[in-house]
UniProtKB/TrEMBL annotation:
<dbReference type="GO" id="GO:0006260">
    <property type="term" value="P:DNA replication"/>
</dbReference>
<dbReference type="InterPro" id="IPR015797">
    <property type="entry name" value="NUDIX_hydrolase-like_dom_sf"/>
</dbReference>
<dbReference type="Pfam" id="PF14815">
    <property type="entry name" value="NUDIX_4"/>
</dbReference>
<dbReference type="GO" id="GO:0008413">
    <property type="term" value="F:8-oxo-7,8-dihydroguanosine triphosphate pyrophosphatase activity"/>
</dbReference>
<dbReference type="GO" id="GO:0035539">
    <property type="term" value="F:8-oxo-7,8-dihydrodeoxyguanosine triphosphate pyrophosphatase activity"/>
</dbReference>
<dbReference type="GO" id="GO:0044716">
    <property type="term" value="F:8-oxo-GDP phosphatase activity"/>
</dbReference>
<comment type="similarity">
    <text>Belongs to the Nudix hydrolase family.</text>
</comment>
<dbReference type="InterPro" id="IPR029119">
    <property type="entry name" value="MutY_C"/>
</dbReference>
<keyword id="KW-0479">Metal-binding</keyword>
<dbReference type="InterPro" id="IPR020476">
    <property type="entry name" value="Nudix_hydrolase"/>
</dbReference>
<dbReference type="InterPro" id="IPR000086">
    <property type="entry name" value="NUDIX_hydrolase_dom"/>
</dbReference>
<keyword id="KW-0378">Hydrolase</keyword>
<dbReference type="GO" id="GO:0046872">
    <property type="term" value="F:metal ion binding"/>
</dbReference>
<dbReference type="GO" id="GO:0044715">
    <property type="term" value="F:8-oxo-dGDP phosphatase activity"/>
</dbReference>
<keyword id="KW-0460">Magnesium</keyword>
<dbReference type="InterPro" id="IPR016181">
    <property type="entry name" value="Acyl_CoA_acyltransferase"/>
</dbReference>
<keyword id="KW-0515">Mutator protein</keyword>
Length: 330
């Protein structure tokens, strides 16, 4: 007997407290159609016609698999659990603009699930995932001027208003005014700012691992950390009682699974940088000898980068002067 479930792209579902964001499946079409073929939902969405023809649900779902495989857009089902059953709550999607390092976020929630923070929970998660994992620096979104609820969602998850615009709404049969929003890394998922005027010094040890070809290892900050999505030198904060070398040996083992000796850590330069909540003091070491093959043990992406290519990787501002020094060294 053929497998009744058609293959869906290998997207690892994103979890939130109450929902799962997963690739849409062909069998979601009847539920998707029922939820979106609702005037109160469709009239807020730019690209959704009303009435919504049933075959369009199949076409849309199939198109999401193509765009996901191409790395151009991720349109996901928001699903929840009711007893033993999985229920479709709505959809959330992010679409990259091929011309710029930007992407657009959109979402809708079935009317039965309104009023419980579902949009903020799902859209917030996809926004953070996008900034942490896609080659983008900002995410944009828009909402109809009269759609105060959607604007509140965008503000709640970290978007800032960036102006007014106009957009064609298929369901409304013409152009309508919209409020435009934008979110950058520094707007999203950053720790709360220190309330006091005095900033504590944050001591972080970092290391430029250099391989036999003169390439430098960069690691991408994973989702959940401040500045997720930026590339950095492996390392981390000093624990109480640790020397910078002790901290690096520990961090390089925890993050990359490699063993390094103190004698192989050569002090190279340091960064002194005012952040919003603290002042970062970061000694940078260079290391050419270690044991083991570096692996992203905390789910972080790694890249071996030629010195002349280092500046094409977006990095925290504190690292920028260090990159110039490293290029001179190598
Ligand atoms: N490791 C590392 N941290 C950097 C670099 N540049 C830079 O500004 N930082 C900052 O230094 C701090 C390091 O914190 P972290 O969160 O990575 O430290 P950690 O590994 O001890 O993390 P944890 O507190 O989650 O356990 C962050 O604020 C980070 O943004 C860099 O090149 N490497």
């Amino acid at each position: 007997m053929p497998d009744p479930r058609p293959p869906t792209p290998g997207f690892e579902p994103l979890r939130t407290e109450r929902f799962r964001l997963r690739a849409l499946r062909a069998e979601d079409a009847p539920d998707l159609h029922r939820l979106v073929n609702d005037w109160d939902v469709a009239k807020m969405l730019a690209r959704v016609p009303f009435p919504y023809p049933r075959p369009l649900a199949d076409e849309f779902i199939a198109s999401t698999h193509v765009s996901m495989a191409a790395g151009s857009a991720w349109h996901l089902a928001i699903t929840g659990q009711e007893g033993e059953s999985e229920v479709l709550v709505g959809c959330v999607g992010i679409t990259r603009d091929p011309e710029s390092r930007a992407a657009e976020l959109g979402y809708w929630i079935g009317r039965r699930f309104w009023g419980h923070g579902a949009a903020s929970e799902a859209a917030g998660r996809l926004l953070r995932w996008s900034l942490a994992n896609l080659p983008i620096d900002r995410v944009v979104a828009s909402a109809l001027l009269e759609n105060a609820a959607s604007q509140a969602v965008l503000r709640r998850i970290g978007f800032r208003e960036s102006g007014m615009g106009e957009r064609e709404f298929v369901s409304l049969g013409g152009a309508r005014p919209v409020r435009l929003f934008e979110a950058r890394r520094e707007d999203v998922g950053a720790p709360a700012l220190a309330a006091s005027g005095q900033k504590p010094i944050l001591l972080v040890a970092a290391c430029a691992l250099i391989d036999a070809d003169g390439r430098v290892l960069l690691a991408r900050r994973p989702e959940g950390k401040a500045m997720a999505g930026l590339w950095e030198f492996p390392g981390g904060k000093l624990h109480a009682g640790e020397t910078p070398e002790d901290a690096l040996i520990r961090e390089l083992h925890e993050e990359l699974g490699i063993e390094v000796q103190t004698a192989c850590l050569a002090p190279f330069a340091f960064a002194s940088h005012a952040d919003a909540a603290f002042h970062l003091l970061m000694p940078l070491y260079v290391c050419r000898r270690w044991t083991g093959r570096p692996q992203g043990r905390e789910g972080q992406a790694l890249a071996w980068v030629r010195p002349e290519k280092l500046s094409t990787y977006p990095m925290p501002p504190a690292d920028v002067p260090l990159v110039a020094l490293l290029r001179d060294l190598l």
